[in-house]
Amino acid sequence: MADKGIRAEVSLRDVEPVKSFIAKIVSIKDDPATPMEVRTRLREACSCLAGGFGNADEPARIEKARVRGWRFHAEEIEHPQRENWPSVCIVIPVFNSPELLKRCLVSLMRTDYPGQVCYMAVDNASTDPETLCILVKQPFTPLRFDEPQGFATAVNTGIKSCPGFDYYVLFNQDCRVIDEQWLTHLINWMELRPRCAVAGAKLLYDNGSVQHAGIRLGANGDAHHIGYMLDCDAPEVQFYEKVSAVTGAVLAIRSAFIEEAGLLDEGYLFGCEDIEYGLRASIYGWETWYVPDAVVCHSDHAVSKDNKPSDGRIRAWQEESHRKFCREWIPFLQMAVGGKIAIAMPGWYNSDEGCYSFCMEVGLAYYLTNCGIETTVYVNDNDPGAPPLHSRLFDVRPLSDLDKADILVAVGAEFVEQTARVEARRRFLWLPQIEDLQPDNDPAFRQTEYSIIVATEKNAEALSKMGRTAVVIPEIGRHYLNALIGGNL
After folding, report:
1. Which of helix, strand or coil describes residue 422?
2. Is 149's pLDDT higher than 90?
C-alpha cells in the first residue's frame, strides 16, 4: 500500500468534457421517449455518482436541513400511544394486472393501524376478466370508469367518493405491504408535524434495494429519487427529511390541505402530478416529508409492463404531462440553475402594533427556501430586525455584503441600480406592484438582462402592453403570511 499521496493537476479542459458527457447522459435518462428499460439502467449507472464530485454540496445541504428542523434521524422520532388515531382512506387505482392486484390487496390486509381505515379501489376501465372478478369479491364497492382516465382523475374520484376522512393515502396496485406498521409510521409523523401536507414512504425493490426515499428536483424539471439503489439499511435513508416531492406510488395527503389547495391537477394524465402536488404544498406554506419508518415494496412500472397494448396511450400521456409540467414549473426551477439565490430587498417593515408586517418579497424568500432552493436575503440596512424564525429558514445579511451571486433577484425597480455592481450569472426583477412604473424612464425597462417576475397574470398582461414579458409565480406571500400569523412555519 502506498504511503504517499499522489498529486494530480486537472484543468477545466479535462473537466468540462466529462461534465458535458454526464449532462447528455442525464438528458437521455430523463427523456420520456427513452425506453423504460434503458432509463432504468442509466439511473443505476448515474447513481454511482452519488457522493462524488456531482454531489459536492450535499454536506452543506444536510447541515442546513438539520438547522432548520427539516431532517431528523429515525431514532429521534417519538411514537406515542394515542387514544384516538385519525381516520384514513386508502385509494387504490386499478388497471388490469390481476396478479399484482391480488398481491396488493392481500398484503394491505396485513396493515396494523390503530384507527379507522377504509379502502377504495378505482377501476380505470380494466378489460381483464380476472381483474374484474377480484374487484367484485372485495368487501368494499369499487368505482369504475368505462373509458381510461388520467391517474389524477382516478385518484381524485376515489377521494371524493369517500368524504370526511382525516387522511387519504394513494397506494399503487404494484405495491405491497412488507411491514404491518407502515401506515402507523406514516400517519404518526404527519400528526407530529402539523404543517406536513404530504408524506411518502421508503419504497424498496423486490431485491431489497431502495427505489425511493423522497424526490429532489433538477433545474430542468428532472426528478431524482433520493437514495436510489442504496441498501435499505444504508445510513443515508434513515432520516425523516423535508423534500421537494414524493412519488405517488405511496403518498399520504392531509385532508385539511385538500380543503385549502385542492386535489391533484387532473391536467396531468400520467406522471408529474405527484411532483406538482409537492411543489404546490410548498407554495401554500405546507411541507412534504419522506418517512423512512414507513416501508413498502414497489415493483416500479410493473402495471405498465403488464399492459403493453396500452403502451402507446401511456407514453402519450407521459409526454403530455411532462410538457405541461415544463410549461408551468420550469421558469421557476430555472431560477436556481447551478447555484444559490440572493434576494436584494428593502428592510423589514414594522407596524404600529409592534408586529412585523411581512411583505410579498418575504413570501418569495419563504417560497424559494421551502421548495428546497438555498436563498439568502440582503436588506439595505444593517439591522434588519428580523425575528429568529428568519435566521432559521434563510440567512439575512446587509446589502453591503452582496458582491457576487449565482442568481440575483432584485426586489423593486430601484434595486436594479443598487445591485448593478453585483456579479451574477442570471438576474431577475421581482415586481410586487407595477402601478407606478414608467416604461420610458424606469431602469427596469432599460436593463433587459433582468427577467421580470410578477405574482399575477394581470400584472404580466400589463407589462406585455408596455413591451416586456414576465414570468408569473402566483400566490407568493399570501399563503406564507397566513402561515406566519398562525405560527405554523
Report:
1. coil
2. yes
More confidently predicted of 205 and 480: 205
What are 429-468's pLDDT values in tens digits? 887 677 666 666 666 566 677 888 777 778 888 888 888 8
Query: Do 316 and 441 share a domain, yes or no?
Result: no
Both 64 and 138 in one domain: the answer is yes
- Hey, what's the cell of 225? 429519487
250 CB-near residues (< 8 Å, 6+ apart): 169, 170, 171, 172, 175, 200, 201, 203, 294, 296, 298
Beta strands in 125-270 (DSSP E): 143-145, 167-171, 175-177, 196-204, 210-212, 215-217, 223-225, 239-242, 250-254
Choose among 412, 424, 211, 433: nearest CA to 336: 424
Q: Which has the closest alpha carbon to 368: 408, 423, 426, 404?
A: 408
Considering the domain boundaries, does residue 35 fall inside one?
no
141/201 same-domain check: yes
DSSP track, 275-318: HHHHHHHHHTT-EEEEEEEEEEEE-TTHHHHHTGGGHHHHHHHH
DSSP string, 383-412: -----HHHHHHSEEEEGGG-SEEEEEEEES
Contact 243, 223 (CB under 8 A): no
Statement: residue 3 has pLDDT above 70? no
Q: How far apart are CA 175 and CA 297, in angstroms?
A: 6
pLDDT(290) > 50:
yes
Res. 275 pLDDT band, cuts 50 70 90: very high
**Kind and range of the H or E run holding 67:** helix 58-67
0.85 surpassed by pTM: no
Distance between CA atoms of 452 and 322, rounded to whole angstroms? Answer: 25
**361 and 278 housed in the same domain:** no
β-partners of residue 201 are 291
User: Is 478 domain-assigned?
Assistant: yes
Which residues span the domain enclosing 295?
A: 49-328
What average pLDDT score do residues 247-255 get?
Answer: 97
Beta bridge partners of 71: 241
CB of 124 within 8 A of CB of 313?
A: no
Q: Look up cell 391517474; give the residue.
A: 151
User: What CATH number should be reported for the domain holding residue 120?
Assistant: 3.90.550.10
Mean pLDDT over each residue of the chain, to the nearest integer: 79
Gap between the Cα atoms of 330 and 339, Å rounded: 15
